[in-house]
Amino acid sequence: MSTTDLIASGLREFALNTAPQNIKSLQLAYALGDIEAQFSLGWAYNNGDGVEQDFAMAESYILPLAQYGHTWAAFAMGWMAEHGLKAKYSPKDVFMWYSIAAADHHTWAINNLGAMYQKGQYVDKNLEAAIYYYEISAKQGNALSHKNLADIFYYGEDEIEVDAKRAFYHALQGAKGGNATATYLLAQCYRDGKGVEQDNVYAFELLHHAYQHGHQQGNIIFQLGYHSEKHCQDDDHYQQAIRWYEMAIEQDQDETSCYNLARIYSLGLGVEKDPQKAIALYHQALGHYEDVERLLGKLYLGLTPANVELGVKYLTLAIAKNDMSAMFTLGSAYLEGRGVAKNDALAFKYYLQAGTAGDEDAANNLYCMYRDGTGTEVDLEQSQFWLKRAAELGHHVCQHIYAMALSNSDDEQEQQQALVWFHKAADEGDCLSSSLELGFCYYHGRGCEKQPDKAQIYLTKALGHASGEAHYLLARLYLDLDHPEGKLRTWQLFNQAYELGWSQAAANIGHCLLYGIGVIANHQQAAHWLRLAAEQGDKLSHFHLGVLHFDQGKYESAAHHLEQAQAQVSAAKEYLGAIYLHQYQVPERAYDYLQGYIHTDDPKDTWALYNLALLLNQPDFSKYNQKLSSDLMLKAADFGDAYACEVVGTRYFLGEILPLDKHAAKPYLTLAAEHDLVAAQYTLALYYQEDSDAPDRVQQVIHWYEQAGKNQAEQAYFNLACFLLENAVEESGISHGIGYLIAGADQDCKLCHYVLASMYYLGEGLTKDLIQSRQHLEKSAALGYERAINELAAQNQGHGAGFEVDKAPHLRCLSFD
What global pTM score does this model have? Predict the structure, then answer.
């Protein structure tokens, strides 16, 4: 093995190969002129490996080689000039020999030059030059140089700023090269998320690896303990942390480990509380942490009465250092009588000191003490001052209380300020009560514009408060927004709100069941929930119950609930007017409910206008007014009410009450017909039958007579059959006409039966069949058709064949009544 290989593989391995049994071999080789053996003998004398350490002898072997140009010898001379022979050689000699070796690409010499420039040792400090040399050495694979670069970029030094990415890169390369300190720095990168995504678990693994591979300073042991503590999942992890902290303390009396271990014992984290151990450890950390006196004072107060004096002593020392937490702690001890005699006045004194120093908890307690007269006189002005001060200092409960006071004001500016404080409590303090209030404000637009998106965010957050109101408001929000996926959520939230004691939700549960919102409609269950809400005085539930019973034909119960609702729900009057007009037939009472709609211009009031128009058109009604009735009916029709359109269209078509204007009738009749109102369908078919210029006349006539026929309009199929028979140019037209006559006969249309009887009797369009003719004739007569009665009588007397068939359409509109 060459000397170069020995040195490159590390000084420890080199030392093993210069053991006493190898010295003679090296001396023999040297005597034979082997320069590598000469170098190895020199290095053995430098290290005292196999021979007595002798720097002069080392120099005698190595210096000639260095002068001759031997790279490793030049490096070794630099090393010896820096260490064993530093009394003989100057710093310039150290720099010279390292530079000679570096010029021949010696990686350790290059690294050492970088170290000299970094430390300002033997040369002026120059970090740029240090980085330059370290990078050259690192490119040659030197793990120590990677570590040195990682160190500079991780912490930053002088003019060199922190560069997390470069720090991570060099730490990673150094760790790969086996450098334990680089592995430690890599762990720091993962722990802090510097240059790489944070990964505490992997950071701990790297720390442990670095410790096992030689980086065993107290700092890394402390880090292992700290990591074990901060990422505890169970008592075992705390036990690990305790072991690491104890090792760090044992190794170098690490004050930080003392401090952290004291905290573990004082709080009983993974072990039983041990105040005495905690006190002993905190005493070792005295002078290194600002809060140790306070923590000692608190622990002493919690021990036997004999320790109270020490507790007060250490807390007083902390207070002298302006430790406001110590002021608060001593104040709390006097307020609660914990370790000292209860003394509200002293508690107030120390709280006042702490609050004035900026302690938010003390400010909160001063707010309460001034309010309640504890340790001082009641002073509501001072109480409000400290409430606001505690809020400003970040006390989230006080922020919420202060915001509530502002929110209850009628002043818009104060409501806007309330919103700011609610945000502080909710966003910074995770105060769910403030989240609820923010949801309320954004939902109702209190102190701000209505903002449904923000309302949803904060109400959803407030659900964790187990607040019935939050569930209720969020359900209302989903309902108002007609959220595409919110119907089921609406139903769930209303039920959860009711379970959490928000009784108002009963009405909404009933509403969901009534209209099938997020649940299958169930009117029976809906009535149950609406009745619960109505019994609690909810007028809207009375209204919905009234409507439900109205639709079920339970008019007496409907009227009862609608009467309860009408003072707050104006639509109840529409239903009450309809009940008294159509069911009870008490027009005067109906008018009492409907008269308020005479001057309405609201399209939602069309049903009230329609019923009011019908009422005013009754000649025997005391307030009969045909002109006003017509105007109201026309207004309802123009608002789009299908029933009013049917009436107005028919009146225009017949010229009754309104002027005869069949073209004006058409749009009204069309709207009503499209809403499946049979009289409008029938009359619209008549309109198209008369309008010979309509481009789609035949299709429209057939369509609307068919629709009217399906809706049981007696003459519709008869008129359609006559129309087709009169206009038939092909056999198919005749057969279709006959088909509609049969359809009309199936609906007991006396005219259809009569025409079919004549066709069967005469054999016109149908095969002659006297039996079928007789059956249809008897049916028509039974339905009261006079011509059928006469023909049947004539046939019974032996006459007959006197059928009189009028194929002209029966031009009479169906009554809209």
Answer: 0.51
Tokens at 710, concatenated: 């399906």
Q: CA angle at residue 13 from 8 to 18, to 5 degrees?
A: 105
Name which of 213, 204, 140, 201 is nearest 175 in CA terms: 213
* Secondary structure of residue 160 in the 3-state scheme: strand
Token output for 735: 């057969």
pLDDT digits (tens, 9 = 90+) for 724-735: 887 764 556 678
Taking phi over 0 as left and psi of -120 to 50 as alpha, with beta for the rest, 10 belongs to left
Q: What was the pLDDT predicted at 288?
A: 83
- Averaged pLDDT, 274-281: 88
Mean pLDDT of the chain: 85
Report the alpha-carbon distance of residue 386 to residue 575 in Å, rounded: 57
pLDDT at residue 816 in the model? 33
Distance between CA atoms of residues 488 and 483, nearest Å: 10
Which one-letter amino acid corresponds to residue 768?
K
> Are the C-beta atoms of 753 and 783 separated by less than 8 Å?
yes
Model confidence at 3, pLDDT cuts 50, 70, 90, reads very low
Whether residue 743 contacts residue 758, with contact meaning beta carbons closer than 8 Å, is answered with no
Please name the helix (run of DSSP H) or strand (run of DSSP E) that holds residue 28, with its range, or none. helix 20-31
Please name the amino acid found at residue 192. Answer: D
Residue 537 parent element (H or E): none
Distance CA 723, CA 152 (A): 102
Residue 11 pLDDT grade (very low, low, confident, very high; cuts 50, 70, 90): very low
Amino acid occupying residue 609 = L
Q: Are 375 and 345 in contact (CB under 8 A)?
A: yes
Q: What is the token pair recorded at 577?
A: 């007017």
Residues 802, 803, 809, CA angle at the centre, nearest 5°? 150
Q: List alpha helices for 617-661, DSSP H.
A: 626-638, 642-654
Task: Give dist(CA 611, CA 590) in Å, integer.
Answer: 9
Q: How much is the pLDDT for 817?
A: 32
Per DSSP, the residues of 283-307 read HHHTTT-TTHHHHHHHHHHTS-GGG
* Cα–Cα distance, 384 to 611 (Å, whole number): 60
User: What are the tens digits of pLDDT across the range 775-809?
Assistant: 999 999 999 999 999 989 888 888 766 676 554 44
Q: Which residue, 83, 90, 97, 160, is CA-closest to 125?
A: 160
End-to-end CA distance of the chain: 120
- Cβ of 52: how many Cβ atoms within 10 Å? 7
Taking residues 137-149, report their average pLDDT: 92
Q: What is the mean pLDDT of residues 419-442?
A: 85
DSSP 227-281: HHHHT--SHHHHHHHHHHHHHHHHHH--HHHHHHHHHHHHHTSSS---HHHHHHH
For residue 804, the model assigns a pLDDT of 64
Contact (Cβ atoms closer than 8 angstroms) between residue 223 and residue 204: no
pLDDT at 225 > cutoff 70: no
Judged by phi (left if over 0) then psi (alpha if -120 to 50, else beta), residue 392 lies in alpha
Q: Please, are residues 267 and 245 in contact by the beta-carbon 8 Å criterion?
A: no
Q: Is the dihedral of CA 580, 582, 588, 591 positive or negative?
A: positive
Look up residue 157 and give its DSSP letter: B
Q: Report CA-CA distances (Å) from 787 to 79, 514, 758, 784, 804.
A: 139, 52, 11, 9, 7
In the 8-state DSSP scheme, what is residue 813?
A: P
